[in-house]
Amino acid sequence: MARGTKSHNVTGYQIYDEIARKRTQYSKIPDLYPELPEKRYDIIYADPPWDYGGKLQFDRSSRGVDEIDLTKNIFISSASFKYPTLKIEDLKKIPIQEIASDDCLLFMWATSPHLQLSIELGNAWGFEYRTVAFIWDKMVHNPGKYTLSNCELCLIFKRGRIPQPRGARNIQQLVRSPREAHSVKPIEIQKNIELMFPTQTKIELFARKKAKGWDFWGLEVMDSNDTIESAYEKENVLQQMLF
Q: Does the predicted TM-score (pTM) go above 0.90?
């Protein structure tokens, strides 16, 4: 069918399926992820690469078959275009419990559609869900099926007891910080965790950048001269790197 015509049998997914396949990111190493460190941590901070089943985000011209305008390129976006995503079954296979201290806290980002799966994942890694550690107000909103989406949650899970000694006990749950590039989380969250647990061993899982005082693990990492503090300025020009 020529571009520019409309058909009740054609959808944006069909038109851009090949483009979507080409843009999807995959792990370039034999296993799903690198080997975990041979070390145990008191604090684990994770932003899992949730899989959305190939769901694509189109622009307004593709809200329905009758509204598709094939005379222009329909904007499409997906988490899997940015980094390799993993289904929940594969995330559960990563033996995070092997790097957790007997007394350990897990801070995990959970997108709203994956809230139930997030709790399942924390349990599979050997932790018990405790509460919402942080609510990130992105200061913008995304469209949703029910209400506009303004916030993202960082859950907290516990294994054993809360690591001692404690640091700050007056950290606010609500963090207001403008949304930056895709999947980049506010630097304030890690800084707040550091204030809460200043002396504990810490690791960031599925890391995309280095943070001073933290070990990191994942498929993406910035070059050795970059830190989390400079991430916002360089996010759009950095190339993905394997380590």
A: no
Query: Looking at the domain assignment, is residue 122 inside a domain?
Result: yes
Q: What count of other Cβ atoms lies within 10 Å of the Cβ of residue 144?
A: 11
Give the C-alpha separation, 78 to 22, whole Å.
12
Range of the domain at 175: 27-55+82-234
Degrees to nearest 5, angle at CA 78 with 75 and 79: 150
pLDDT of residue 5: 46
Mean pLDDT of 156-177: 97
Q: Is residue 14 part of a domain?
A: no
Enter the tokens of residue 194. Answer: 């550091």
| Residue 158, C-beta contacts closer than 8 angstroms, at least 6 positions apart | 104, 105, 106, 127, 128, 130
Q: How many CA atoms lie within 13 A of 103 on its CB side?
A: 8
Please indicate, yes or no, if residue 241 is contained in any of the structural domains.
no
The domain that contains 47 carries what CATH number?
3.40.50.150
- How far, in Å, CA of 70 to CA of 58, rounded? 13
Specify whether the CB–CB gap between 201 and 42 falls below 8 A: yes
pLDDT digits (tens, 9 = 90+) for 84-132: 678 889 899 999 999 999 999 999 999 888 899 999 999 999 999 999 9
> Residue 83 is encoded by which pair of tokens?
């980094």
What is the rounded distance in angstroms from the CA atom of residue 200 to the CA atom of residue 43?
Answer: 7
CB 179 within 8 A of CB 142: no
